Amino acid sequence: MQLRLDALEAHLAKGLAGLYVVYGDEHLLAQEASDRIRATARAAGFTDRSVFTVERGFDWSSLLGASQSMSLFGDKQLVELRIPSGKPGKEGADALKALAAAVNPDVLTMITLPRLDSATQKAAWFAALSDAGVALKIDPVERAQLPNWVGQRLAAQGQRVAAGEEGRRALAFIAERVEGNLLAAHQEIQKLGLLYPAGSLSFDQIQDAVLNVARYDVFKLNEAMLAGDVGRLSRMLDGLRGEGEAAVLVLWAVVEEVRTLLRIKRGVAAGKPLAMLVRENRVWGPRERLIGPALSRVTEAALEKGLALAAKLDRQVKGLSGGTPGNHRNDPPPDPWNGLFELAMMVASPAKSAPVKPPVRPGPAAPVRRPV
């Protein structure tokens, strides 16, 4: 049985299943869900606990033995299996199918996995586990949902932001400071609970307490670019540079998005359905919702111009050439990070891409990769 995270509490209130599979890359939410299952299991008498972690050479027979054995003291036991790679292999797949088929009312099994692709979720071993117990998928909290998530967490500890625009600004402020780092958001919310009493929090109180603990993800950069969120785009480029991310990796991510937009743009012009083109180009998740507005905002000529700029930036970040001091019209800026901003702006805000001065703060020279 598949179960949503927000339905876990109601499910546990009705009683425990014999098998749980918790999977997803949002570590904070996965840990909290696992803790809730453990706490409910302890309250139900599963006081003995065995933990197995799948590594190279793992003995799957030890897991099967534990799932069928009784505790020396006659206690019910919780057996936890952690598969960090998400790939059990052939022997592991057979063992997991056998585990799913076994029934032992004195043993509760909890398996934790990372995010699984669609092919793995269709594998026989995963289907057997889902059919035999409860599969709990941990979806990430998207950027647009983060302010509401923060507000809910504050409410859970008896705090709230001010009403109206000030409150929305406060939640947006927290979301910006912890972007991509849900654990940091949780810690900052807990800190607010320690610093201030229950009740309303002002924007000034939040601003004074919340640190800039963002973790910038080069692949989230594309979402900001497609959404046309210039402020977020600037912050993310600034943050990636400050964290020492290689300019060549950032360039690759941006160029892949430009190429995808150009292929879909040309496909639509040729009369192909947008939905089909989106699937063919493997556009999923938040990007799927953002691709339509981005296509209507940017022209084919602008995308082609972006690829021409990207070719010059590629040589520049690899140390094959640099910005030209003469500042010719078609040359990239001397600093490749400014060139990256200019390229991203061709999608984020094409009408302003040429005259906008990149607001990336000065920093150390970008890492240079020279050809071998």
Overview features:
372 residues; Rossmann fold; Helicase, Ruva Protein, domain 3; two-stranded parallel ribbon; disordered C terminus
Report the uncertain regions: 322-327, 353-372
Beta content: 5-15%
Total of helices: 17
Span between N and C termini?
A: 52 Å
SSE topology string: EHEHEHEHEHHEHEHHEHHHHHHHH
CATH classification class of the largest domain: Alpha Beta
The CATH architecture of the largest domain is 3-Layer(aba) Sandwich
- Biggest sheet record: 6 strands, parallel
Radius of gyration: 25 Å
Helix content range: 40-55%
Determine the structural class based on helices, strands and strand pairing: alpha/beta
Number of strands: 8
Number of domains as seen in the coordinates? 3
The average pLDDT is 85
Morphology call = globular
According to CATH, the fold-level topology of the largest domain is Rossmann fold
Provide the CATH superfamily of the largest domain.
P-loop containing nucleotide triphosphate hydrolases
Strands of the widest sheet, in order across it, are 1-6-2-5-4-3
GO biological process, one term: DNA-templated DNA replication
Organism: Paraburkholderia domus
Domain DNA polymerase III subunit delta C-terminal: 219-318
Region (Disordered): 318-338, 352-372
What do these coordinates show?
It is an enzyme of class 2 (transferase). One of its GO terms (cellular component) is DNA polymerase III complex. InterPro entries: DNA_pol3_clamp-load_cplx_C, DNA_pol3_delt_C, DNA_pol3_delta_N, DNA_polIII_delta, P-loop_NTPase. This protein has 372 residues and is an alpha/beta fold. It has three domains: 2-137, P-loop containing nucleotide triphosphate hydrolases (Rossmann fold); 143-209, Orthogonal Bundle (Helicase, Ruva Protein, domain 3); 221-352, Up-down Bundle (Zinc Finger, Delta Prime, domain 3). It is built from 17 helices and eight strands. The protein has helices spanning 8-14, 27-43, 60-68, 89-101, 118-121, 124-132, 146-156, 165-177, 182-195, 203-209, 221-227, 230-242, 247-269, 274-280, 286-297, 300-317, 336-348; strands at residues 2-3, 19-23, 46-53, 76-82, 107-113, 134-137, 159-161, 199-201. The protein has a six-stranded parallel sheet, with helices on both faces. Helix 12 (230-242) runs antiparallel to helix 17. The chain is globular, with a radius of gyration of 25 Å.
